[in-house]
Design a protein that fits this description.
Layout: H1 2-8, E1 13-16, E2 21-25, E3 38-40, H2 44-53, E4 56-59, H3 65-74, E5 82-88, H4 94-100, E6 104-108, H5 116-127
Parallel strand pairs: 3-4, 4-5, 5-6
Antiparallel strand pairs: 1-2
Helix pairs in contact: 3-4
Length: 133
């Protein structure tokens, strides 16, 4: 994350690590405004690193509200650290995820979902401030 953040900020990067090795690398066209970086994480160490190095953490659709609470306990991010949770469109109690600390919910259609318009309408309803249905 450190190398990527530096590259997106237009810096030249030299790093030798376990997963990344870059020698005098710089983006030819870095973005004028670096995008926010979110990290997908599930285990305690990665959750901790996500909190330290990114502006948000993405949790998978198999995450329960209690697991959201547990994950937040490992994330040492500052104010404004987003907690994005993919949630099956079959879940009825979306409020439980928000109460657990999720800041963004992504409704994910399951394999049995045939009414994508219904999923879209539910998302619009939620985004407009309506209660989950």
């Amino acid at each position: 994350m450190t190398a990527l953040t530096s590259l997106l900020a237009g810096e030249t990067v030299d790093v030798r690590g376990r997963y990344v090795s870059l020698d005098n690398v710089r983006l030819d066209w870095p973005p004028a405004v670096p995008p926010p970086l979110l990290v997908g994480a599930t285990r305690p160490k990665t959750l901790s690193v996500s909190g330290e190095t990114s502006c948000g953490t993405i949790l998978t659709s198999s995450t329960t509200p209690q697991q959201v609470r547990d994950a937040i306990g490992h994330i040492v991010g500052g104010p404004g650290h987003d907690i994005v949770v993919y949630v099956s469109d079959q879940v009825d109690d979306l409020d439980a995820y928000v109460e657990a600390g999720a800041t963004t919910l992504v409704l994910e259609p399951g394999p049995q979902t045939t009414d994508l318009n219904g999923v879209f309408q539910r998302a619009v309803h939620l985004a407009s401030g309506g209660p989950p249905r």
